[in-house]
Amino acid sequence: MLRTVRPETGRRRVRDAPGVRASVPSDLVNAGLVADSVLFPGVRVGAGARVRRSAVLPGAVVPADADIDGAVVLEDGRIQHVAEGVSA
After folding, report:
1. What pTM was computed for the model?
2. Is 27 in a helix, a strand, or coil?
3. DSSP code of 82?
4. Could you give the CA distance from residue 88 to residue 25 in angstroms, rounded to a whole number?
5. Strand ordering across the sheet containing 38-39
6. Are 45 and 25 in contact (CB under 8 A)?
7. pLDDT of 46-76, one tens digit each?
8. Is 74 helix (H, G, I), strand (E, B) or coil?
9. b/e map of 40-50 (b: 16 or more CB within 10 Å)?
10. Hey, which bits of 11-66 come out as E strands?
């Protein structure tokens, strides 16, 4: 598990929970759907929002009804889309 942001914050892998599938949330407030994503501490996902194949950085807020796929959500809420097929 990642321990780069707030080492004192516990981490856990959540396989399946309401609105969460195969993601790594920590102190997540989730009112939407999160799948195949990494969410850092303090993240809030608004009602009806969908986050897929993305990374949401510490403290970021995903607004209600947002549809985010293949992106990085920055701490200030800005979204950086990742080009399809790009690998590191």
Report:
1. 0.69
2. coil
3. P
4. 23
5. 38-39, 55-56, 71-73, 79-81
6. no
7. 999 999 999 998 889 999 999 999 999 998 8
8. coil
9. bbbbbbeeebb
10. 14-17, 20-23, 29-30, 33-35, 38-39, 44-45, 50-52, 55-56, 61-62
